[in-house]
Design a protein that fits this description.
single chain; alpha/beta; Spore Coat Polysaccharide Biosynthesis Protein SpsA, Chain A; two-stranded antiparallel sheet; 10 strands
């Protein structure tokens, strides 16, 4: 399958604790086993079949690294959702979306994900069950969402299958803006899905379908058989773990 890809390599502003821990200016430039994290992600995406690879960043050193890797740097917007919208506008759908801190990323994970995406999806996300993650990376500490069908963690891989994925990115932007006003998030996402979630009656697939349905997009999921796909580098402890696994 031929597709384009967008790698988010933005910054939240201020000093990144992982970059500071590694002694570099930007997290994407951390060396792991002789390759920067960005290079590892570009390698995996390219090996999976990406024809065009965009790197969203506001950092000049990351921009130069992207060019060296044969990727196309593009200006990061204010927040990951806006950067994703810009990438989708530049590269079009279908578009694979991932992050520069996904240092363990492998081409096999990407192709397995794309093969599992339902045919009717406008947008899809890869997620892994707690037991799968703990089997493959028992030392990692992830954030889990508890649904009726188990505890799940995201894998930083998204498939923007059709232009309608823009509607989901619009909702993501709204949630980002309202993160300090939770009542607005509840209003946007709908009360009934949250009631079903609170009472343990909501599966993950149903949650995505409900939320997507509110904005007119078919949001779907795929389950990862690879627990390491949920491991990214958010904290210094994650970097130590990833370096140990790669060694």
């Amino acid at each position: 399958m031929s597709f384009n890809a967008l790698i988010l390599a933005g910054s939240r502003g201020g000093i990144d604790p992982v970059a500071a821990y590694a002694g570099v200016a930007h997290k994407a430039l951390i060396d792991i086993g002789g390759r920067t994290m960005l290079a590892r992600v570009v390698d995996a995406v390219r090996a999976a079949g990406a024809a065009r690879i965009l790197v969203s960043t506001a950092d000049e050193a990351v921009r130069r690294e992207a060019l060296t890797l044969g990727a196309e740097p593009t200006a990061a917007e204010a927040g990951p959702s806006a950067s994703a919208k810009r990438g989708l506008a530049l590269a079009g759908a279908p578009l694979l979306l991932t992050t520069a801190d996904h240092a363990l990323l492998r081409a096999e994970w990407i192709t397995t994900f794309l093969d599992a995406v339902p045919d009717d999806a406008d947008i899809a996300a890869l997620l892994a069950r707690r037991e799968t993650i703990e089997r493959d990376a028992p030392a990692t500490r992830r954030t889990y969402l508890r649904f009726a069908d188990g505890d799940w963690s995201g894998c930083n891989l998204f498939w923007l299958a059709t232009p309608a994925a823009n509607l989901a990115l619009d909702l993501w932007q709204q949630v980002e803006r309202d993160r300090k006003r939770p009542w607005r998030i509840v209003r946007r996402l709908g009360v009934m899905p949250l009631v079903r979630y609170a009472t343990g009656r909501l599966t993950l697939a149903r949650a995505l379908a409900d939320i997507g349905g509110r904005v007119g997009v078919r949001a779907r999921m795929a389950e990862s058989p690879f627990g390491l796909a949920a491991v990214d580098v958010d904290k210094p402890a994650d970097l130590d773990l990833v370096r140990g696994l790669i060694r």
